[in-house]
Amino acid sequence: MKLETVGASALAEKEVSVHTAADLAVEVVSDSGEGAQKCGQIFGAVSAKMGNGVWTVEIIPAEVEPPPREPAGASGIRIRLGDKEVTNWGDDTNVVVAFNEQALLGRHQLNALADDAVILLENMWATHPDPKIQKQWADTMEELSHRNYRIIEVPMEEQCLTVVDNPRKGKNMFALGLLTWIFDRDLERAREQIAHAFRTKKAIITETNHKLLELGYAWAEANLDFRYDIPTMEAGAPMVVMNGNEAIALGAVAAGLELAAMYPITPATSVSHMLGEVFEKYGGVLHQAEDEIAAAGVAIGASYAGKCTFTITSGPGLALKTEFLGLAVMAEIPLVLVDVQRGGPSTGLPTKVEQSDLLAAMFGQTGDAPHVVLAPATIGECFDIMPTARRIAEALRTVVMVLSDANLATGVAPFPRPELSPEWQMGPPDQRPVPEGVRPYDWDPRTGLSRRFIPGQPGGMHTVTGLAHDERSKVAYDSETVQRSMTMRSRKLAVFQSTLLPPEINGDPEGGDLLIVGWGSTKGAIEEAVERARKQGLSVSSTHLTFLSPLQPGLKDIFSRFKKVMTVEINYSDFKDDPFITDENRRYGQLAMLLRSSTLVDVDCWTRVIGEPLRPNMIVKAIRENMPGGEA
Amino acid sequence: MIMSSCSLLHMADEDDDRVFEMGDYQGPVARWCSGCGDHSVLTAAQRLMAEKQLKPETTVFVSGIGCSSRFPHYMKTYGFHGLHGRALPVATGVKLSRPELDVFAVMGDGDCVSIGAGHWLHATRYNLDMTALLLDNNIYGLTKKQTSPTTPQGFKSNTQPHGSYLPPMNPLEVTLGITNASFVAQTAEWVPAHLFATLKAAYEHRGFAFVRVLQRCPHFMPNIFTDAVKKPDVIQILDHPEGIRAEGIDKIYTNQLRHDPADIHMARELAEDVDTIRLGLFFRDETRPLYEETRSLQKRTAREKMDLLNEDFDRYAV
């Protein structure tokens, strides 16, 4: 490790070297409440607007304000930049701005940093009056010295005090200034982005932040001897940059959804923050219900009354809504539910990514409750999936669940600006009087589909019920009706599946040794890993499923072209070699379980529950270790 | 302007010269036990609809689960027979999105006071313009005689065969303690004139009208109100020009107390005293804001929404 203290004396002689990189990751880490994420979000947005590929991942402790200066309390953000589209957070970090050495230590201990990472570290702690802190600093420097990090001490506190009284509320913008100089970002864009980020605050905040930005920029210019150049992409189609939850919120608006009912839960809540800001101007109502159950009830009540509605939640909330979801399936009331998954079980890891609600989403309801489950794989798909979900829910008169996750929720990436369609705003169902003889569940015996009518329509009066019922919505327990009505509700899924296309193959559609199957937010990391492995000569391809219930068609045929099929997921599965684990009792990843039962193919799985997104290099290693016929 | 996107033109049809009679609101024959108090409430609701000439297609009865929650099935209106305890969230969704509909929520004591208690508190606070009926027979009937939150202390049930352990909950007192409570009344199924007058006042109230209907369950709680049924003087009628006045009951129910329903403090005192059965309007305040009005928004056309979305996307443009 090289530890450097740069200051006024060092600048006279310096010569700046510019390193060109196609791909590089930056982290800003701090104690909670010091604004590292805000800094990273602005830096990411500015980088995207300048034409770099960008993917950001927030590192969020579970507490609002954990004790300061603890490795476990490290709060921050990783921003991966590239000269082309970036689809995941990458392997490790090359440039770090750390507000204290303990937060830095936390990242070091998680192996988040590249061996040759360049670290800009606040140095006020080295000479802190508290001897304990001085010792922590010294111990940390000792631990870090075993790596090849280049640590540059930066007097952030001292510098920020020239502009603000409380540097805790300003270091992040100073750090943004450092990064703006190091990566040669356009200062004016950075100013604009700051103004946007603080648009709801007093003007003085933006002014102060502009000063801090410029201060950081000037300090870097005067003191640092390195810069990075990440070549930008040529401007193509117009792009927008936002996180997955913002994309879901705007997708919901674009889909013509008119009412969202929710109860606050991490990491889903920021969808409602966005809706809270914009929904009313569209005539949309965001109803914060008294609990998760009521949120589902209000959405279902409004949908029953003819509105296009949805509810937003995360795992524990999904569990609470279960009974209502079964009712919506039974009474054939359209409903879109967004589940932004977090780690489980129980309260689990509220701020961390996992893909472990799949089976609960599909099978969590009691009895047989066939419904549709979709999963967006990218930030852009978080937007696209909402009009799709609404359309399916209304066409099939059933529940459509959208499984996003914490990685997509807070991840920021640019994507092509969606082309909007006014048709997505289509109104409620046909409201003309219901002709004599038409019944509320006039199931087409071939498809199970039926016309929906809503309160206000003369001649359509009926009582929907969660009890077994016949075409007239009359309670019916006779064997024939129970069997028929179940068949009709189930048939809709088969009919829907018949409209879907088989998934595309990334790699070789003709087949090969290994096929990786993924779903949800892991797509970018899986595809990057497959690309790397293919360059290394491995016969591996991947496919990614958007439709999980019903599954996309053609899977059996696709699987038959590969010697081995393996899912890669962020949920739990037993390791084959663990004590007591046998072929019979091994618990598989959730998608693997589904695929095994639906295709009868011996689908293997490689899953991890590590409280963070998968890194491509982990997947490359998993591919090597799981090539049929032994490690490649 | 209402937020509804459902431009129900036929609803505003002034040529609609239909005249409705009670029979027009009657669904299939009710399958409740004979002597069940639910029958009286059903009849009173149908009578109310005929008196108010409510259109069957613009009226929605929402219920939960329990004997009384079969209510919507026996009405010829739109109905929603949902989940145990969850009538109010569904009714909230219906009324919030379609304020032009007449919405009634029908709940039992297990439904409202036990499993759905959280919704009851919050629906009172939302204060949507709807009528909420608590059909309170002090017992779980459909599942056959289990203790409910309003079961008298000491009453032997299948779940508490040695007598219920706790004093019963007082739904009137609870409701009167909730912020934004705007209409709280009590009536009894065996006093049809008062029941009807109460339902009428509740329907006419601008806001969330909470009515507790005292009921007998002939199978599982047959004797709970025997005394009150036989001796009208046991019952005290709350009387006031601004209150509920039932026709033709004054001769039988001579025990009357003048109570101004604007007086929340006296309402709470009267509700708290459980030694006397009181029927009438405890409290009414029509000045409380309605949630559906607070949340009412201007409707946008598809084209306007596209323009606004493009503005929002501009903020995120690269």
How are the SSEs placed, and which strands pair?
The complex is a heterodimer of chains A (632) and B (318).
Chain A: E1 2-5, E2 17-20, E3 23-30, H1 36-49, E4 53-59, E5 75-82, E6 93-98, H2 101-109, E7 113-122, H3 131-144, E8 150-154, H4 156-160, H5 171-182, H6 187-197, H7 203-223, E9 226-229, E10 239-243, H8 244-254, E11 259-262, H9 269-278, E12 285-288, H10 292-304, E13 309-313, H11 315-331, E14 335-341, H12 358-363, E15 372-374, H13 379-396, E16 399-405, H14 406-410, E17 412-416, E18 463-465, H15 479-497, E19 505-506, E20 512-519, H16 523-535, E21 540-545, E22 547-549, H17 555-559, E23 562-569, H18 590-599, E24 604-607, H19 616-625
Parallel strand pairs in A: 1-8, 2-9, 3-6, 6-7, 7-8, 11-12, 11-13, 13-14, 14-16, 15-16, 20-21, 20-23, 23-24
Antiparallel strand pairs in A: 3-5, 4-5, 10-17, 15-22, 19-21
Helix pairs in contact in A: 1-5, 1-6, 2-3, 5-7, 6-7, 8-9, 8-13, 10-11, 16-19
Chain B: H1 38-52, E1 59-63, E2 78-81, H2 87-97, E3 102-108, H3 109-115, H4 117-126, E4 130-136, E5 139-140, E6 146-147, H5 171-176, E7 183-188, H6 192-204, E8 208-214, H7 226-230, E9 235-239, E10 256-258, H8 264-272, E11 277-284, H9 291-294, H10 302-315
Parallel strand pairs in B: 1-2, 1-3, 3-4, 4-8, 7-8, 9-10, 9-11
Antiparallel strand pairs in B: 5-6, 7-11
